[in-house]
Amino acid sequence: MSYEDGPVDALSALADGEVIDLSQTLEEGMPVVPTHARYSHTLYESYERGDVACHYRLTLGEHTGTHIDAPLHFIAEGDAHCDIASIELEKLIGRAATIDVADIERNTTVPVERIKQWEAEHGDLREGDRVLFRFNWDRHWAPGSAGTQYMADWPGLSGEAAEYLTDTGVALVGCDTAAIDVAHDESFPAHYELLGNETYIVENLTALDALPPFSLLITLPLKIEDGSGSPIRAVAIVD
To answer: Per UniProt, what is one GO molecular function of this protein (predicted)?
Structure first.
């Protein structure tokens, strides 16, 4: 079984491969975009209180933790695939290419040339692929004040690189930063280019260093009506 050779049977991959968790743990005090809802985990029933079951109330935003952006997140008008409940699930399961750009400096962007260099070494990206960028920014992820750096000065994808990916026809682009656009760029060129072409975005990934150049990626969202995004459990299966 080789992910480089194209589509693989998911059941065979699960049987023969190693499953890598690419998701950040949801916990109070975790890094969040300042304008987004903060995560909380409130106990409602407990054995200690004499209840017959245990359960918690969750308070979180659609873009909390490791999550996926639907086109609705930045595109005001679109077709039936605009919100997260209408997302094309087949785009969220399949071959993923992981591009290591850990040497990209903070507050700078990945140029098109880096993607082409990767292709020259590992093979061309194909229509329908998922592309993950490892900035190694998840090393800054931590709850509370220890995670302050995670939400500041992160690197991102240039608008030109995003256009190159949509021209290729990739299905999804992911990163281990707070956003696919570089920090402080409020024109959001990568978001508009990707989501405007129904190329979904996954942010706040982790453990991308455990992935080879190609793997099988699964990134399934909650089915939220009129949702602009959703937390996910992202996993990769490596050969």
So the answer is: arylformamidase activity
